[in-house]
Task: structure prediction
Amino acid sequence: MKKLIAGISIFFIFFSFNSVKGYAKIDQETTLIEKSLSLVQDGDYVHGANLLEQLESNYMASAKKNKKLTPKELETISVTFQNALVSLKNDAIDPQEKVADVLGLRLLIDADQTTMQPMWKQMKKSVMTPLKNMDSAYKKGNSEAYEIQLNQFLQQFEIIYPSLLVDLPYDEVKKINSLVSFLDDYRINKESIPAFQQKIDETQSELLFIFGQGSSIIPPASFWTIFTTIGIIVGTLSYVGWRKYKGDQKKKKKRREHND
Result:
């Protein structure tokens, strides 16, 4: 009996030690990505990129050892890191797009690590609001308003898309990506497609289903960090119209297709 008790004690000591090490590692990674995000928000892209490169090296080495991650998930993490770094180092990219790219990476890292409510679900309002506005503009026949709201929706969806790839079953991601791609591809000829309204409705229903899955619990500190960041993103991206988006449309579409 004493040997059994001793064995159980050693097990729990070992388990606790490794748990503490694991949490310390996650805290370190969280600190790095949040510092980088804060620097990018302040316009310090050089130091923000330096922190991301430091994080990428350690994070990818650890991720490759994680047998729970599929090759597709590893590829998604790697591509999202690279997209954020390329964005930060490209002076031609809009400042708020840089923030959005790093925010997408922040959400992805959380989705990969968390066992609670993922942070990307706190993006529900910023994703669903322009989609609802699209629906309203389409019904009213206001093409200009529709285009503006569609572009805002696509930008917000692009932020959470990498997180969906590692957090949801592939069939669900494939379904929502197909619906979003349809809205993007047929934006010009939407009036000539009888089932277009149905596609808008299906997109709203599918996204509501995705956001509604699981618990609503999220750590308070993380909630306020992401809530503040999302507020900045939503407020500053509201001016973007469809002409500005056209230049980036092909690049973002290829990125989604590559991840599929």
